[in-house]
């Protein structure tokens, strides 16, 4: 009787309490606005509407926004339930698997090139983008054999790729994509009931399909073999369930944009309460997903009482990223926390000698530098460059080369070297092939620090590098403190970094919207660029890591080989594993912070360069360090040259170009290793 009473109380609180909270939040939400309305006016507008301005404001603007929040929050939460069951991954949601980025890119792409395809709010395009993205992530992470960490990391790589492609379109087609930046961050703004009328029947249909399949999804939790033995067609069940989940995600994205983490937070709230069967889990998740999203929108307008519309997607990320960190910390004792994330890529013994590799890379860098110095808005001009340097030329050409092109190319070269070494260190410390300053949260922390310096503290440009470094250190220290609790387990540390990065990115989105930055300039800065970089960045920020930290690393780099043998072996050889990891990660952080302060958050150099180096010279870190430096420098010099020349006189930010090149390589690598 006691258990029955307890279950009844839990059910009443979960469903009844959730519904009551939803009514309260809806009323608070409707009562918010730039013009204050009495609660009695709001109630009268809903129950007994009259033909006056106050009632029209409630019924035409505020009530549709609240209803859209209920529909979108519930749909995203139910989508998260299905994705977590089908992938058997507690960290799955539309945001962590990259589905949001795929749907967003598909809509922006069609807005620019095929606007006629955007019928029905673009739901067909969004649905196609979501399905393709899910299939890419699910397949490349290993399908049914994929671990949570591999699947989430695959989702992160796909998100980087689609976000970079979307940024390119928004930068070069700013007029065509006007208004999509706020929508791309997630917003519940509604001007009438059209969004609700469009989405409600589709969400209801998708929800009905999932409710009819709840028993079949219960059997999926027992494993594919058991589900098959119980008479289920596992592939059909998964196909229909994923289709319905992506449909729910797509319809919300087509109306309110990509709003992340609701599908992660709400289902786990219900699971923590104790529900495991899918019928109550789906219904309760819908109610609490609506609560989460409405609460986020209420919070957004409390944070910014000027009602300049903070993106609600950024607020849900502020709520959801700590939740992701909590879930990751709960995994530290599971089998996934001890998962082997070996970084072996290439051969243990390499056939190519350093005496061959290093001169070849040096020649590639020299040739690329020459091409970069000789290239401008009028194409490749080697004769003019030669005359400027060694012959008779006017002072203008010489000044152009020495004051603009040469320092910019050197900034790209040294920044690439620094990022490559930082990535090499993080991969060794985490024993994870996808480790990079962006994975550990450093680049987003640096972005937060720089934007706070510019737009909150209103300091001069000279303080921006200091702000960027301060932000990266704060984020690094937080990740390290959490990692100490997780005993520096490599996969846990990588997932913690993703959560911290999401939190930082949410703050960046809020600051960009609040600062009212131009979309193109904001995206260019956030993507990382070598544009207009010169001698000051080179001398003040980039020379010191090379002169001070690199010699120190050359003396201590062999200890990474010891760490790669495993913690127990390293301890047996007398290494203080935790302290060594912390020290090496701190050096990697300092390197990345200097680079971010100079050129912004350029990703993937720290991922690509160490891997290409292993393919050339093997896995010995003593051999890898000089080769990775040269490969990283060469990659960013090439990207810088291409960024200036591909669409001259327009420029593609170097960070976007590197991401577009690097993401497909890592998707191939994950497929190969899966």
Structural notes for this entry:
- The protein is an all-alpha fold and 674 residues long.
- The chain is 74% helix and 1% strand.
- It has a two-stranded antiparallel sheet.
- β1 and β2 form a beta hairpin.
- α18 packs across α19.
- The longest helix is centred in the middle third of the chain and has 36 residues.
List the helices and strands and how they pair.
Layout: H1 2-31, H2 39-47, H3 53-87, H4 99-113, H5 123-140, H6 148-172, H7 180-184, H8 194-212, H9 214-220, H10 224-229, H11 234-256, H12 262-273, H13 278-303, H14 312-330, H15 354-373, E1 375-376, E2 379-380, H16 382-390, H17 395-430, H18 442-456, H19 464-485, H20 490-515, H21 519-527, H22 535-556, H23 558-563, H24 567-572, H25 577-599, H26 605-617, H27 621-645, H28 654-673
Short description:
This protein is an all-alpha fold and 674 residues long.
Uncertain runs are 340-349
What is the C-alpha radius of gyration, as a whole number of Å? 26 Å
Apparent shape: globular
Number of helices: 28
Structural class: mainly alpha
Overall mean pLDDT stands at 81
What is the topology, as strand order, of the major beta sheet? 1-2
Secondary structure: helix percent: over 70%
**Total strand segments:** 2
Oligomer: single chain
Reading the helices and strands in chain order gives HHHHHHHHHHHHHHHEEHHHHHHHHHHHHH
Q: How would you characterize the largest beta sheet?
A: 2 strands, antiparallel
Please report which band the strand proportion falls in: under 5%, 5-15%, 15-25%, 25-35%, 35-45% or over 45%: under 5%
What's the end-to-end separation, in Å? 50 Å
